[in-house]
Amino acid sequence: MNKRQSLEMTRMLAAVIREAPYLEYADGEWERLRQNASPAAVAEWTEKGLFRGDFEQFYVLSRFCDLLHVTDAVDGEYLAALFRSAKKLSATAFSEDGFLRSVQVPTVRRGDFLLTTATYARGEFLQYAMPDFSAPLVVPKLGFFTEEVTFPTIYE
């Protein structure tokens, strides 16, 4: 996969993310994966750059990619880069931050910017940062929360 093709895939994924997709899943689903995964399968996922020790993250990202047929459309290098840049995000950082808990954010628009609060459902995907457009392969920086979370945000 060349840079142009990776950029096209990243644009497609970004368009999907703008629609706030989320993957409904129960803890038992990824726990079954953990219990049933053979050491050989885990070693293969690790060797391919898809698994970094977190079965929940691997399960959610794999299902997301399968539902969008990403695995059929990209090569192993792109898929590994996508999984490497993805993050399982924790609501704990927001719930334990006294400042963020006390902040009341009004909804205000100034030009192209919107200050508001955002609520993300468990398993809802977002882009936590912009892709590195100077990289040989451009992949989105996808993230998802493991529980519902609300926090102040600025949209452009």
Brief descriptors of the model:
156 residues; alpha+beta; 3-stranded antiparallel β-sheet; 8 helices; globular
Give an account of the 3D structure.
The protein has helices at residues 3-18, 27-36, 39-47, 55-67, 70-73, 76-85, 92-95, 98-102; strands at 87-89, 108-110, 113-120, 125-129, 141-145, 149-155. The relative contact order is 0.20. It is built from 8 helices and 6 strands; from the N terminus they run H-H-H-H-H-H-E-H-H-E-E-E-E-E. The mean pLDDT is 92. Helix 2 (27-36) crosses helix 4 (55-67). It is 46% helix and 20% strand. The chain has a 3-stranded mixed sheet with strand order 1-5-4. A 3-stranded antiparallel sheet has the order 2-3-6, with no helix packed on it. The protein is an alpha+beta fold.
Which SSEs are present, and which pair or pack?
Elements (H helix, E strand, L loop, with lengths): L2 H16 L8 H10 L2 H9 L7 H13 L2 H4 L2 H10 L1 E3 L2 H4 L2 H5 L5 E3 L2 E8 L4 E5 L11 E5 L3 E7 L1
Parallel strand pairs: 1-5
Antiparallel strand pairs: 2-3, 3-6, 4-5
Helix pairs in contact: 2-4
